[in-house]
Design brief:
By secondary structure, the chain is mainly α. It is 77% helix and 0% strand. Helix 2 packs antiparallel against helix 15 and helix 14 runs antiparallel to helix 17. The radius of gyration is 22 Å and the shape is globular. 54% of the residues are buried.
């Protein structure tokens, strides 16, 4: 559930009160910081691997640990804001995020970096759900359209600037700190947000907030860990028996979660997951699409970075600039899909996006095979633009399509669940990198063998990503054919669902 589902106890500031615009700038800066932080890390992964001596599984957990903690805490973070105050939880979140960023920047080794990233994800889960809730409580209804338009612009700016900023900070090697400034840059921003937020943000709570479901959260985390940990460590440990036992036990944990959530819904009406939503065909299909989409993107973005920097030997800056056409294509197509295409053609636009992404991946695979180690950035531009256009046709309208048949009283719960499963899918995709990428790279490679081995592994992983896009295309047949009348608040809630860091990394 997100806090926009209930009526705030705070009275919005008067229209002439300029403090609300300061509050908006603060919460948008925090959302921007969260978005950029994830995209920055992706581009710096090869440098972290080399300088910090991180293993394959540690590299995966630097990204997957954040996604897992973020996913597990999203719904609980929203409810904590409803109960204890959104301003209070926002300040706790931004303060904790800043502290975690400092721990990442000063990490003594890869183990500490992984732990700090998990903490960072957990703090982001406290901070991010409050952003739209604070906006909802601070601005009157007639001003929210302008506000959410600004929010979308900030998201687009983060999409383009994150990889470039990460590339520049890594390339510059400020003060000899290598990759560490990508985290330390959050410190002055976070401290300013904490100080100014305490002064300008108006406190608000929900009068009928749902109770916490910590048992449900624990079961979700346990089930995911039982699945992800063996996936990320299996290749290094030569796939021990306990790994297979753990992965086989994960579905049993999720089955127990469903049974527990049913009982909790009957007992006090505040389950972590509103299971009745899955009776809505379009919502159930949409959740499947979001999860599988997250898996595909989790695989692609990590192996793409490793391919360019470790396989081809490119600098972080060159790799970052190579991704600019992709980011621009996503932003452009996203605007067109929502404003012009989906109202006319409905579901076909999303399915065309899935097929375009699959086509772009196949083009990329063909070019990587044809040109090998000699491939250039401009040769990658065409497949990246095709992929970007396809992705833009999906990410912007997908949330509204999933929410369009959900009863308005469950719009908040549905939106929160969409965000959560997308992050979980992303974490699962990052875990699968051990199988689809590192699993085909031989052990004890000589230096001259590393580049060709990474290029071959990238092509293997692209085949998996293309297959995932075809699965998404088929799942989309269960979405509504035409845009339905949107539920109350769905448009606002969908902004958060569109603001998924991994989508634009």
């Amino acid at each position: 559930m997100t806090s926009t589902e209930t009526t705030s106890t705070a009275v919005p500031p008067a229209a002439g009160d300029r403090r609300r615009w300061f509050a908006l700038a603060i919460v948008m800066t925090a959302a921007f910081m969260d978005l950029v932080d994830v995209t920055i890390v992706n581009i710096a992964i090869p440098s972290i691997r080399q300088e910090a001596g991180a293993s394959v599984s540690q590299i995966q957990w630097i990204t997957a640990g954040y996604a897992l903690a973020f996913a597990a805490g999203l719904i609980t973070g929203g409810r904590l804001g409803d109960i204890h105050g959104r301003k209070r939880l926002f300040l706790v979140g931004i303060g904790g995020f800043t502290l975690a960023s400092a721990l990442c920047g000063f990490a003594a080794g890869p183990e500490m970096l992984v732990a700090a990233r998990i903490l960072q994800g957990a703090m982001a889960a406290m901070m991010v759900p409050q952003v739209l809730s604070i906006v909802h409580a601070t601005f009157p209804a007639h001003e929210r359209g302008k506000v959410f338009g600004l929010f979308g612009a900030v998201v687009g700016l983060g999409a383009v600037s994150g990889p470039l900023l990460g590339a520049l900070l890594t390339e510059w090697n400020l003060f000899g700190l290598e990759w560490r400034p990508i985290f330390l840059i959050n410190l002055p921003v976070g401290i300013a947000g904490l100080v100014l937020g305490s002064r300008f943000i108006t406190e608000s709570k929900a009068p009928r907030a749902l109770k916490l479901d910590l048992v449900g959260v624990a079961m979700v985390v346990l089930g995911l860990l039982m699945l992800l940990y063996p996936l990320t460590r299996g290749e290094e440990l030569d796939w021990p028996l306990w790994g297979y036992v753990s992965m086989a036990g994960a579905p049993l944990v999720f089955a127990a979660l469903v049974a527990y959530e049913r009982r909790k819904a009957a007992r006090d009406g505040s389950p972590l997951v509103e299971l009745s939503l899955f009776r809505v065909k379009s919502f159930a299909a949409g959740i499947a699409v979001q999860t599988v989409f997250g898996v595909g993107l989790g695989i692609f973005f990590l192996v793409w970075t490793l391919y360019m920097q470790t396989g081809l030997g490119w600098s972080p800056l060159r790799a970052g600039l190579t991704g600019v056409p992709f980011s621009l294509a996503v932003s452009t197509a996203a605007g067109l899909s929502v404003q012009q295409l989906v109202p006319r053609f409905g579901r076909k636009v999303l399915q065309a996006g899935a097929l375009l992404m699959a086509l772009g991946v196949v083009l990329y695979l063909w070019e990587a095979d044809r040109y090998g180690m000699a491939i250039s950035s401009w040769q990658m531009a065409l497949p990246l633009v095709v992929m970007g256009v396809g992705m833009g046709l999906i990410v912007a309208p997908l949330t509204d399509a999933v929410l369009s048949e959900v009863p308005k009283e469950h719009a908040g719960s549905a939106s929160g669940l969409i965000n959560t499963v997308q992050q979980m899918g992303n974490a699962l995709g990052l875990g699968l990198v051990s199988v689809v990428f590192f699993g085909v790279i031989g052990d004890h490679l000589r230096p001259e063998q590393i580049g060709p081995a990474f290029v071959d592994a990238f092509q293997h992983a692209l085949g998996w990503v293309a297959a995932v896009m075809v699965v998404i295309f088929l799942l989309m047949f269960a979405l509504p054919k035409r845009p339905a009348q949107h539920v109350e608040g769905a448009g606002e809630l969908s902004v958060v669902a569109e603001k998924q860091p991994e989508l634009v990394s």
